Automatic annotation (TrEMBL):
The EfeO-type cupredoxin-like domain, residue ranges: 41-130
Name of a matching Pfam family: Cupredoxin_1
Keyword Signal: yes
PANTHER family: BLL1555 PROTEIN
Keywords in alphabetical order: Signal
Name listed for the protein in its UniProt record: Copper-binding protein
SUPFAM superfamilies: Cupredoxins (SSF49503)
Gene3D superfamilies noted in UniProt: Cupredoxins - blue copper proteins
Length: 133
């Protein structure tokens, strides 16, 4: 049963979105012991979205501290492509497409330090420190 080819790009975009959502939600392999069992829903208090700007050859700010449950949104605005790629097992879920201009976000559910770099420019590095909620 052939499908119209023009649907393919929309489908790819949809899959990319789903993949991003799954990546954001599926990285809880090292969940710390939670003593606060009263929070059972998907919403914790005061979840925030924090912005990092990706211009040519730098993440700005290069280091941020957030609270578990917060989302980091990388805003790409350069003349050449950049990406976000985690360093080490802890940051494995950080794996964005390459953008010259675009947005990519990731929700950090587990406390710890997440280091990342741009896969094209390994000298472009950043760190997200996630504190316990
Ligand atoms: Cu780069």
């Amino acid at each position: 049963m052939p499908r119209p080819h023009r649907a393919a790009s929309a489908a790819v975009a949809g899959l990319t979105l789903v993949a991003a959502l799954l990546a954001g939600c599926g990285s809880d392999e090292s969940t710390p012991t939670r003593t606060d069992t009263s929070i059972t829903g998907s919403h914790r208090n005061a979840e925030a979205t924090v912005s990092i700007f990706v211009e040519d050859d730098a993440f700005s700010p290069a280091e941020i501290t957030i609270t578990a449950g917060d989302t980091v949104a990388w805003h790409f605005d350069g003349d050449i492509p950049h990406g976000v790629q985690g360093i080490g097992d802890k940051a494995m879920g950080l794996n964005s497409p390459l953008f010259e201009v675009g947005d990519w976000s990731y929700t950090f559910t587990s406390p710890g330090e997440y280091r990342y770099l741009c896969p094209i420019h390994p000298d472009m590095r950043g760190k997200v420190i996630v504190e316990e909620a």
